[in-house]
């Protein structure tokens, strides 16, 4: 049996995660590393962009190229990286407030453009870093610091939104099942086109409603059903189950490979032009002046 070239620990940085003990982000951290190792993608060929929030600290804890951007801006930054060098594996990682709220506009348009990046959302139904305010996915009636009488807003259904907006890979995972997450992340990374994974990831500190026990009592795996993931309407029906009964499907809702990606439609990239490989035409002194602005 051939030994794998990379192990999960090869993608672990020297920084220890600062999440609350028991946070669902730990399982996603392990699953991302395990998926990259299984696919044998060199750490130096991976870029992870994030926004602001508890989950958005992820770039600090992975031994890959990473950047923590402005709140909600992980997707446009990742898109820029991907267009500059389509040889890279580019991921986005953030929370439900970061990507569905502050960055909702970017999420919507990345779906329709079918940019070949992977977006993972740690969905805990709350703003965790700022100590517990209602987020776009908080159910009606949720009591938070910003909704002391209960939220009156209808929650966003990110899975059905992504399918409707044109994403070509749409899945949902659960932080209580790291092995299943690894499978989903692996499939998402291998997918050609915009891959989106919403992850039920309980915030054990500020959300006492959507807990690990809450999800364990309700989830079931799509792979164990006869669902056709290439059927658009079946995928939408499955996505809407969350809103009609207490059965929460996890797994791959929708995946098609017959839609061209944004990169494939870009004229310059189509001709083999890779911006990141081009000479900047700047002197060493000019480069030093520019880079000093980011110190």
UniProtKB/TrEMBL annotation:
Could you tell me which residue ranges the Thiamine pyrophosphate enzyme TPP-binding domain spans? 52-199
Please verify whether the record's keywords include Iron-sulfur.
yes
- Keywords linked to the UniProt accession: Iron, Iron-sulfur, Magnesium, Metal-binding, Oxidoreductase, Thiamine pyrophosphate
The Swiss-Prot or TrEMBL record annotates one GO molecular function as: metal ion binding
Concerning CDD domains, the annotation shows: TPP_OGFOR
Sorted alphabetically, the Gene Ontology BP terms of this entry are: cellular respiration; organic acid metabolic process; sulfur compound biosynthetic process
Cite a single Pfam family from the UniProt record: PFO_beta_C
InterPro entries on file:
2-oxoacid:Fd_oxidoreductase, OFOB, PFO_beta_C, THDP-binding, TPP_enzyme_TPP-bd
Limits of the Pyruvate ferredoxin oxidoreductase beta subunit C-terminal domain: 203-265
- Required cofactor names: thiamine diphosphate; Mg(2+); [4Fe-4S] cluster
Q: What is this protein called?
A: 2-oxoacid:ferredoxin oxidoreductase subunit beta
From which source organism is this entry? Candidatus Heimdallarchaeum endolithica
């Amino acid at each position: 049996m051939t030994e794998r070239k990379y192990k999960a620990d090869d993608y672990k940085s020297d920084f220890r995660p600062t999440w609350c003990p028991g946070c669902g982000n730990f399982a996603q951290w392990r699953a991302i590393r395990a998926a990259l190792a299984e696919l044998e993608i060199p750490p130096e060929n991976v870029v992870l962009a994030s926004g602001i929030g508890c989950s958005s600290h992820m770039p600090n804890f992975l031994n890959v190229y990473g950047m923590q951007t402005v709140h909600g801006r992980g997707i446009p930054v990742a898109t820029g990286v991907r267009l500059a060098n389509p040889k890279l594996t580019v991921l986005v990682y953030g929370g439900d407030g970061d990507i569905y709220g502050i960055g909702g506009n970017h999420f919507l348009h990345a779906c329709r453009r079918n940019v070949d990046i992977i977006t993972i959302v740690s969905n805990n139904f709350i703003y965790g870093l700022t100590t517990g305010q209602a987020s776009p996915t908080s159910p009606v009636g949720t009591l938070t610091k910003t909704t002391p009488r209960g939220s009156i807003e209808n929650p966003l259904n990110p899975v059905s939104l992504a399918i409707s907006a044109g994403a070509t890979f749409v899945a949902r995972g659960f932080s209580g099942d790291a092995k299943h997450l690894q499978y989903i992340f692996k499939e998402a990374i291998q997918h050609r086109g915009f891959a989106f994974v919403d992850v039920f990831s309980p915030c054990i500190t500020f959300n006492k409603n959507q807990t690990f026990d809450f999800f364990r009592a309700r989830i079931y795996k799509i792979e164990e059903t006869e669902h056709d993931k290439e059927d658009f309407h079946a995928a939408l029906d499955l996505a809407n189950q969350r809103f009609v009964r207490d059965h929460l499907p996890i797994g791959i809702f929708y995946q098609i490979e017959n839609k061209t990606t944004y990169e494939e439609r870009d004229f310059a990239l189509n001709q083999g032009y890779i911006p990141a490989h081009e000479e900047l035409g700047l002197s060493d002194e000019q480069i030093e002046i520019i880079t000093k602005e980011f110190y």
